[in-house]
Design goal:
Elements: H1 4-11, E1 14-16, E2 21-22, E3 29-38, E4 54-57, E5 59-66, E6 78-83, E7 100-105, E8 108-114, H2 123-126, E9 130-131
Parallel strand pairs: 1-4
Antiparallel strand pairs: 2-9, 3-5, 5-6, 6-8, 7-8
Length: 141
């Protein structure tokens, strides 16, 4: 999804934490293809408060695919997961190795993970600037 308005419409009904997005995509990556949120058992018993209002998001995972698709010898699919601090659930995972990068965005925990076969090198994602402000995201039109 690369249209700013479409992303805003998808996020609008969900209160709580906002997705962490790269301001500029690392070379070889395409716009985000899939956005999903999770609620914390601290916050809600169900995914929806009522028919029109989703329970507050405690985490967001956003999936980025390589421009030429995932390949064994190419770039992997990457998920950027941001989690609200101070909740008992671990929604983004706890890994910290060559294929998982731990970051902070404000007070929020971020885990950037390789989730497909492909090169193990995550260097391109190590220093990417992250934001929750859709207006700063250069790859959204």
């Amino acid at each position: 999804m690369h249209e700013r308005r479409a992303v805003q419409e998808q996020l609008r009904p969900v209160e709580g934490i906002r997705p962490a997005l790269p301001v500029t995509l690392p070379r070889g990556y395409d716009f985000a293809r899939w956005y999903e949120h999770e609620v914390s058992s601290d916050d809600a018993d169900s995914e929806f408060v009522d028919e029109m209002t989703a329970a507050p998001a405690a985490s967001w995972s956003v999936y980025f695919f390589p421009t030429d698709g995932p390949r064994e010898d190419g770039l992997p699919v990457v998920v950027v997961c941001v989690q609200k601090p101070g909740i008992k659930d671990v929604l983004c995972g706890e890994q910290n190795d060559a294929t998982h990068l731990r970051r902070q965005l404000g007070q929020n925990d971020v885990l950037i993970s390789r989730v497909s076969r492909g090169r193990r090198d995550m260097t391109a994602w190590r220093d990417v600037e992250l934001t929750t402000d859709l207006n700063k995201v250069t790859w959204l039109r």
